[in-house]
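Backbone-to-sequence.
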């Protein structure tokens, strides 16, 4: 009895899905702003697995804002509360520069300032397929 060929998947439909996910964000540079270390690492890993190039992660407002000024990126993923400091000044700056972003947070819509209530938002824990879809939409890919 022989097994599958060395580079073939025993589940062809699954390998197609994995292939689609691994290239979904190919060429998209994503700034990650997240203060929870393990969440930041998981988010970075998930986005890289989807083909994105990541910038960061950055866990505080000061370093995230500095990175946003010096780095090139297509989309930002922003946690709202960074160790007690709100990310809104960075979101304002990105809005002024017309750089798209998505909030990924446990905060509900009613907790957001009025100016950000129409901004894209994903609840934590985030749904990877939904987040990838939102980043693709925001990046125009």
């Amino acid at each position: 009895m022989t097994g599958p060929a060395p580079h073939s998947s025993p589940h062809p439909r699954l390998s197609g899905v994995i292939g689609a996910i691994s290239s979904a964000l190919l060429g998209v540079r994503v700034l990650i702003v997240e203060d929870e270390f393990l969440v930041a690492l998981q988010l970075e890993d998930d986005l890289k697995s989807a083909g994105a190039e990541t910038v960061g992660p950055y866990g505080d407002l000061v370093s995230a804002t500095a990175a946003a000024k010096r780095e090139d990126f297509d989309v930002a993923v922003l946690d709202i509360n960074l160790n007690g400091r709100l990310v809104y000044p960075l979101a304002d700056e990105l809005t002024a520069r017309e750089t798209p972003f998505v909030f990924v947070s446990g905060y509900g819509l009613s907790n957001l300032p009025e100016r950000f209530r129409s901004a894209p938002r994903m609840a934590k824990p985030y749904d990877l397929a939904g987040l990838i879809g939102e980043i693709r939409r925001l990046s125009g890919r």
